[in-house]
Specification:
The chain is mostly beta strands and about 200 residues long. About 10% of the residues lie in helices and about 45% in strands.
Amino acid sequence: MLRPVPVLAVLVIVTGAAFLLFGPQPLPSKAPALEIRTGPFAHDVYEGFLPVLARRWKGFSRPEDEQFGLSAALPDGALGLLGSPRIDTGGTFNTKGYENQAHLAASWRGYLFGSPLFVEGTFGGGLHDGHLLDGQKPDRNMGCRINFYESLSVGVTFWNGWSLAISYEHMSNADLCPPNEGLSNMGFRIIAPIE
């Protein structure tokens, strides 16, 4: 069973290979107006919200999701009090008939020390088509149809604004309507700018 540390090692290796192939790339002076995001995800990788306890990792034994999304820049100054987030919308679709989810959220990206490495966080709402109360394992009982959606990505911008990121996403209802088993997925995303 794969653990998060080897997956992060793969990201470092891919980042290094991209750097060697394409050389140092200047960071975009302004985020593109629109980004397309897609990539493979493992389904239901962690039992809980924040992936910090090793004993709660389920591993990457279910690589059965595909994520698609769009991220759009807001007009200059829009939501400036909130740090000028981007609007992020998309979905994670399960190829084996388990939970699919769609989300609409705000996202914030910060580059680390002027390097092409970045961290991106997302917070918003999500909708799923899974079970509410009566699911049997490995189905998740989500309690509510509409839930909170959060994600965290670590990535690198490597060529003409293209990026590669490892992303963790979580959807749950904060115990507003039990049960609250939630759903956590993790995978890689290619992020392509649209000018």
